[in-house]
Amino acid sequence: MRKIAPSQGPFLPYGRQLIEEDDIAAVTAVLRGDWLTTGPAVAAFERALCEATEARHAIACANGTAALHLAALALDLAPGDRVVVPSVTFLATANAVRLAGGEVVFADCDADSGLMEVPQLAEALEHAAAAPGGPLKAVFPVHLTGQCADLPALAALAAEQGLTLVDDAAHAIGSRYRAADGNTKPIGDGRLSAMTAFSFHPVKTIAMGEGGALTTNDDNLALRLQRLRSHGMVREEREWQHRDLAFDADGSANPWYYEMPEVGLNYRVTDIQCALGLSQMKKLKRFAAQRRRLADRYDRQLAGLAPLVRPIARSASSEAAWHIYPLLIDFAGAGISRARVMARLKAAGIGSQVHYIPVHMQPYYRRRYGDLDLPGAQAYYERTLSLPLFAGMEDSDVDRVAAALAEVLGRG
Ligand SMILES: *Cc1c(COP(=O)(O)O)cnc(C)c1O
């Protein structure tokens, strides 16, 4: 293969947004309008999410972390209640449980896909049952990279154990899971999960600057999430408890009145963000198709580097929109450390990233739960490296990255 000079093109980060003129026009239109927040763009964005996911309700919020926090709060965890979270995920999945007062039970993952499948969930439940602790209340599967585990099987095990299923789909807007009947359904459709959390951070498939959302088919959960998103405040007359304060002598509602039956947050999202999100949602199919095309091209261009370099295991249970393109690399076999590979790629104008340091290894969680042995997570973590993947990339960018990686690994 050809030698790669350091300045062969613009720097390729591991992920970034693709903003086009119509996105800019959509945001500008909101800035000229009457509502900067809690206006029509928020409602329109929520409707677009319902359409894309086929869920009954979508609740847009400040970011994906806020979405996970709201979902965890809506579970009404008592102190000590436990929630299963796969260790190979971003910090926020586990932190949501802690912030809502629960305890985290870290689950292992399949060493080649990074996904918590049924065996790893069953193992986590067994360990948890044998250890002291509060009741197990929920499980938070993560659709890592945009793939998903066998969701019907996970949901069946969760239901059998009386656990609420909340999926972290921060990577998976536009991805589909395989339903029990063999057909695929949009992730976030609410058929198998109580709530699904999304993120619209610029590295994710749809960009809002900061932004997140939950989808659910449960009417009560939807109301609860809306309430928690805005201070725990209730504006619907029928929900008011203090009827004497709420209504005038003639029985009409006092125009200033609002009520707070529980404590909540300000996790609202602006119309500015939602205008961008709505404009981007119109491109979801195109962005997802482009990500799939680029991932397939990477697979082909890197095939010659096997067995030193392999794509992660493809899940038969899903059609991924590929938020990231992670590889499994035998760094010892290649005789070069991951840090050196990243540094040399960077020198060639190529960003890369590790998704993720298993969360159970973080000092906070080691202090709380001690040293856990999760060999699948360990094996996945030691080998993984994500290469650039975003909708604005072209085939030639993939070829350039593949050639640079071959060169760095001494196989160029
Ligand atoms: C990005 C991400 C989050 C958090 O989303 P933010 O919008 O950045 O707060 C949560 N979980 C996973 C798996 C993520 O990748």
Q: What are the defining features of this structure?
A:
412 residues; alpha/beta; Aspartate Aminotransferase, domain 1; 13 strands; 38% helix; disordered N terminus; binds pyridoxal-5'-phosphate
Characterization of the model:
With 412 residues, the protein is of the alpha/beta class. The chain is built from 15 helices and 13 strands. The chain has two domains: 21-281, Type I PLP-dependent aspartate aminotransferase-like (Major domain) (Aspartate Aminotransferase, domain 2), CATH 3.40.640; 284-408, Aspartate Aminotransferase, domain 1, CATH 3.90.1150.10. It has helices at 21-31, 40-53, 64-74, 91-99, 118-130, 151-160, 219-229, 243-246, 271-281, 284-302, 331-334, 338-347, 363-369, 375-383, 395-408, and strands at residues 57-61, 82-86, 103-107, 136-139, 164-168, 176-178, 184-186, 195-199, 212-216, 309-311, 318-319, 325-329, 384-387. A seven-stranded mixed beta sheet has the order 1-9-8-5-4-2-3, sandwiched between helices. The model is unreliable at 1-7 (pLDDT under 50). Bound molecules: pyridoxal-5'-phosphate (PLP). Pyridoxal-5'-phosphate is lined by residues 63-65, 89-90, 92-93, 142, 168, 170-171, 199, 201, 212.
